[in-house]
Specification:
Elements: E1 2-6, H1 11-22, E2 29-34, E3 42-45, E4 48-51, E5 53-54, E6 65-68, H2 72-84, E7 88-91, H3 107-110, E8 121-123, H4 127-143, E9 145-153, H5 161-171, E10 172-175, E11 178-181, H6 220-233, E12 239-243, E13 253-261, H7 267-275, E14 280-282, H8 288-291, E15 297-305, E16 311-318, H9 322-338
Parallel strand pairs: 1-2, 1-6, 2-5, 6-7, 7-8, 9-12, 14-15
Antiparallel strand pairs: 3-4, 9-13, 10-11, 13-16, 15-16
Helix pairs in contact: 1-9, 4-6
């Protein structure tokens, strides 16, 4: 297999390079691509030094699979051209997710969707949606998922390196020429934010993503959660109510979910189901810090509720840069390579 990675110098692209090496992906060649500004950068892979190519000017002929982590605009422009050159594109952006001719895939959930790839493009789900899918799918198979209410707890790295830098900058202050941690919020002043709608340090912002101008008062993140869950789970009428929240955490997206099922599902039965599910770890107290740098979705705080019919509450968390982006793309490539 000859693999390419577009956006190889960004957060998700860099993670893809590392994960290919970690998982011992068998390949015959790896080419890396990024913007013209990053072209010429040297990236180490399995002891070799690879030179990053200009993605816009590159010839993609000869590649079998290309992983894209370069944003929606770049993907809309380049993905069809790369696919026309003969590669299958696994795209991490939102550009192709809801296209009916593009499978939206979480391998543990719906790898069967890879049987048909009409446009030569496969979509990677949104990082926030991704964390919950390995948890909700086995519960749905057992009891029939009818709908769920979810509030997310999204790390700043979901907004890229600029989001990480903004939180880090707001947490720091200068005292006598040295930097120290500002634990009382004193470094956060009005206007001291660009990436988020307000200061994120020592704060929680109940708006992640951009408001959609359709009268719904939802953000695009909230609509993605609903629409992508329906497509991945194969439940076009699934009822989903979502509030996406940005929290002052560097890595790890969490979600508090109250789900409704067609039949009663006890905590004991649900725990047994999840304990046997692939890529899921049951814990008493899952946290973003505990999930950072690790591959599974961690789930806990299971309890029954009568707020929804046959209701079950749970908290799930996962590393948004690994399973939420890079790892899932590599897993899709592994399935494709195996075929």
């Amino acid at each position: 297999m000859r693999i390419g990675i577009v956006g190889a110098t960004g957060q998700a692209g860099s993670a893809m390079v590392s994960i290919l090496e970690e998982r011992g992906f068998v390949l015959d060649g790896l080419r890396l691509f990024a913007s013209e500004r990053s072209a010429g950068t040297i990236v180490r892979f399995k002891g070799d030094e690879l030179v990053v190519e200009d993605a816009a000017a590159a010839d993609y002929a000869g590649l079998d699979i290309v992983l894209m982590a370069a944003g929606g605009g770049t993907s809309r422009e380049l993905a069809p051209r790369i696919a026309a050159a003969g590669a299958i594109v696994v795209d991490n952006s939102s550009a192709w997710r809801m296209d009916p001719d593009v499978p939206l895939v979480v391998p543990e959930v719906n790898a069967h969707a890879l049987a048909s790839i009409p446009k030569g493009i496969v979509a990677n789900p949104n990082c926030t949606t991704m964390v919950a899918m390995p948890v909700l799918k086995p519960l749905h198979d057992a009891a029939g998922l009818q709908g769920f209410v979810v509030s997310t707890y999204q790390a700043v790295s979901g907004a890229g390196r600029a989001g990480v830098a903004e939180l880090a900058g707001q947490l720091a202050r200068t005292v006598d020429g040295a930097h120290e941690l500002a634990t009382d919020g004193s470094a956060v002043e009005h206007g001291d934010h660009v990436k988020f709608p307000g200061p994120i340090a020592h704060n929680v912002i109940p708006l992640a993503g951009n408001l959609v101008d359709d009268g719904s008062h939802e953000t695009d993140e909230e609509q993605k959660y609903r629409n992508e869950s329906r497509k991945i789970l194969g439940l076009p009428d699934l009822r989903v109510a979502c509030t996406c929240v940005r929290v002052p955490v560097f890595t790890g997206h969490g979600a508090s979910i109250t789900a409704s099922f067609r039949r009663h599902l006890s905590v004991s039965e649900a725990t047994d189901i999840l304990a046997a599910a692939p890529s899921v770890v049951v814990q008493d107290l899952p946290t973003p810090l505990g999930a950072a740098g690790r591959d599974p979705s961690f789930v806990g705080r299971l309890r029954e509720t009568d707020v929804l019919e046959n209701g079950l509450e749970l908290f799930v968390v996962g590393d948004n840069l690994r399973k939420g982006a890079a790892l899932n793309a590599v897993q899709i490539a592994e399935v494709l390579a195996g075929r």
